[in-house]
Amino acid sequence: MSFVESKIGPGESAPGPEKTPVLEIEDLRISIASAGSSFEVVKGVSLTVCENEIVCLVGESGCGKSMTALSVMGLLPRGVARVTEGKINYEGLDLLSLQSRELRRLRAESISMIFQDPITSLDPVFTIGSVLQEVVRSHRNVSRAEAKEIAVRALVQAELPDAADRLDSYPHQLSGGMRQRVMIALAIALDPRVLIADEPTTALDVTVQAQILENLRARQREREMGMLLITHDLAVVASVADRVAVMYAGEIVEEAPVEELFADPQHPYTQGLLRALPDISVSRAGLYSIPGRVPSPQTPPPGCLFAPRCEHVLDSCWEGNPELKREANRSLRCFNPQPFEVR
Fold this sequence. Notes:
By secondary structure, the protein is α/β, with parallel strands linked by helices. It has helices at residues 65-73, 100-106, 118-121, 128-139, 144-157, 176-188, 206-223, 234-240, 258-263, 268-275; strands at residues 21-34, 37-50, 53-58, 81-90, 93-94, 111-114, 194-198, 226-231, 243-248, 251-257, 325-327, 330-332.
């Protein structure tokens, strides 16, 4: 899949092997309470994001990607979901041990997040200018004029047309793409070290998607931020990622540099995701789809969680769940990996 090679633009270089971790998630477990019982939706996830690096977290809906991101921000729904085990470190600081006030101080200033649907993230009764300036003034000791200047600069960097004139606009007066640019401006206004983007191009047309992704990548590179990009779109992954973690049913099943993952996917789930990509160079009677669906976290299958959908399943796959084994710069959770064949 040669289109992966095009993600490094003119004047840019591939990320080097030695980078400083800015976000480290270690053995994270999240449970949800429902009808008097609880069940795990994130099961021992470990993930590292380094400075000046884009890590993509990939998987079908319901795999636990957004729950992982919300736990980093301390935004899990109270009384419903909670972290039961694990660590989340930001530059050595344990986020799970912080009080609400301390965590609130870190949001936007050190760790920022772009949510999936901007219309539900922007308050309809406030103008985008008032929201941006409030965020700036809550973290910086600046005047209203200075906050306005920072807000306009962030909107310009997010490539919102007529940025200064849009300060008095309400969210409903903007298109979906423009609202997403406002969310990018909110996320980058205070120059955070870590940016989490949860499916930032969902529901946007292809042209706008490409523009948003290019803008995000440009802002990330110029600030040398660590970015965790959550998506189920492998075309998005190929265009921006440095490293990819594939998530299934609450677990990381494979992790590798993006070029290696696309050239040599080893987990049957990753292979299925790649086979499902439309490819005009391959003659097919129809589009491929992975049989079955992601298992319910309330009733997980015995053994390997992917076993009911796997075409290479062994008897041992039903008896125990494989551990995530790390070798060199790759990780894999599978008893019976097979070479990838394009079909």
